[in-house]
Known about the structure:
This protein is an alpha/beta fold. The protein has helices at 3-19, 22-32, 51-58, 70-79, 116-120, 142-149, 163-168, 186-199, 222-229; strands at residues 41-45, 62-66, 85-87, 89-91, 96-102, 133-140, 154-157, 176-181, 202-208, 237-243.
Amino acid sequence: MTAALRSWAGVARSLVIYRARPWRIARLAAFYRGIVAPGDLAFDIGAHAGNRTRALLRAGARVVALEPQRAFHAFLARDLPAQVTLLPLAAGRTAGHARLAVSRLHPTVSSLAPGFPASMASAPGFRRVRWDAAETVEVTTLDALIAAHGLPRFIKIDVEGFEPEVLAGLGQPVPWLAFEILAATPDATRACLDRLAALGPYRFNFVPGEARAFAFPTWLDPAALLTALATQSARSGDVYARLADA
């Protein structure tokens, strides 16, 4: 299979996973309505196939979506409604350029995190993944996005192990955030929790995998969340953070 064919096969694979079941976007939109109200601003950092952006739109939010992978940005530029602000950027600690390790057949796990391919090579669910390409991408910061577009109600971050670097580029609290965690990268989870705790009085909950409900009946501080996560059979998913008065 040629490189170009592998890339388009990867795009097609992601679209089947994330977009072929539209009722999932409807359920996700219903979940997001508990976080955003019509007219609220949301950032989708790592938009990929656009399912989260579409769910936020359906919930009534205004969306700024970042997707640095060329193939997916080109798809989203044709697919997303015109009211979405779509940017061909990554987010990180500082503005500049960085190397994105790309898996052509599994592009959803492409990552800017140094050493991510090597650290994940033997992790469950990743053993067949090969990071066989690279792209140089432009990087901005969450603070720069806020300066340009306003303070969001909600930021969703799904960037395959690079989440701590994204949060390092945020210098002020926002009401709600969600960041992906992976069972194989517990240090990244702790780094994200530490960063948010330094920004404001956040409390945390967890949504495992592709579920649409919080795992815990109460919102937890960072230490309690880490203890609670250890009891979960599925330890990959999204951690949600909300300010105490949000």
